[in-house]
Recover the amino acids of this structure.
């Protein structure tokens, strides 16, 4: 539920190991020693689980949307 939140983990996390993915990416982005390639690689790694779930459930998603769009 909270893996993609930003403000609450930013306030509540006292240690960088407790950061969520979005907070960790924003910290990486503001660090001058980290290149943009590292931030992009982190964003791709953060995207992969959502993409896998979407690809596995794509047929069910499309069926559900089509069933909700038809009348009767």
């Amino acid at each position: 539920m909270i893996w993609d939140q930003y403000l609450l983990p930013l306030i509540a996390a006292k240690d960088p190991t407790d950061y969520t993915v979005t907070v960790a990416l924003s910290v990486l982005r503001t660090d001058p020693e980290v290149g943009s390639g590292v931030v992009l690689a982190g964003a791709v790694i953060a995207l992969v689980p959502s993409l896998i779930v979407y690809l596995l459930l794509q047929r069910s998603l499309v069926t559900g949307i089509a069933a909700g769009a038809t009348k009767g």
Summary: The chain is about 70% helix and 0% strand. Residues 36-69 form the longest helix (34 residues). The CA atoms of residues 47 and 53 lie 10 Å apart.
